[in-house]
């Protein structure tokens, strides 16, 4: 049976795009650069980044004011991988 998917939430889509952009860059990024790469107005990018900052997923360098991802995302990845059984995942292969 085919599952009917709900329409995606645009704010979540934009936030995930920001996270992916930041993850692809080794160095912290300026707000303007994040917004440009995400195709978002600077004000929208700032609002979403501030939410990520408040939740601990993003850090901001107090000197340069550039943004980067925190280790909270790595922690989530570790939690997810601890719930996965590699033998079960590789079985179809």
Explain this structure to me?
The protein has 93 residues and is mainly α. It is built from 5 helices and 2 strands. A hairpin with a 6-residue loop joins β1 (58-60) and β2 (67-69). The protein is globular and about 50 Å long.
Quick structural overview:
This protein has 93 residues and is mainly alpha-helical. Helix content is 57%, strand content 6%. The protein has five helices and two strands.
Key features of this structure:
5 helices; 93 residues; mainly alpha; two-stranded antiparallel ribbon
SSE layout and pairing:
Blueprint: H1 10-24, H2 31-38, H3 42-55, E1 58-60, E2 67-69, H4 72-82, H5 86-90
Helix pairs in contact: 1-2, 1-3, 2-3
Instruction: Give the % helix.
Output: 55-70%
What structural class do the secondary elements suggest? mainly alpha
Strand-residue proportion = 5-15%
The biggest beta sheet is recorded as:
2 strands, antiparallel
Q: Mean pLDDT, nearest integer?
A: 90
């Amino acid at each position: 049976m085919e599952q009917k998917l709900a329409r995606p939430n645009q704010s979540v889509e934009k936030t995930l795009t920001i996270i992916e952009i930041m993850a692809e860059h080794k160095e912290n990024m300026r707000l303007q650069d994040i917004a440009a790469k995400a195709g978002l107005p600077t004000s929208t990018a700032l609002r979403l980044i501030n939410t990520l900052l408040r939740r601990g997923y993003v850090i901001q360098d107090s000197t340069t004011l550039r943004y980067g991802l925190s280790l909270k995302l790595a922690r989530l990845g570790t939690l997810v991988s601890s719930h996965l059984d590699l033998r079960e995942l590789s079985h179809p292969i």
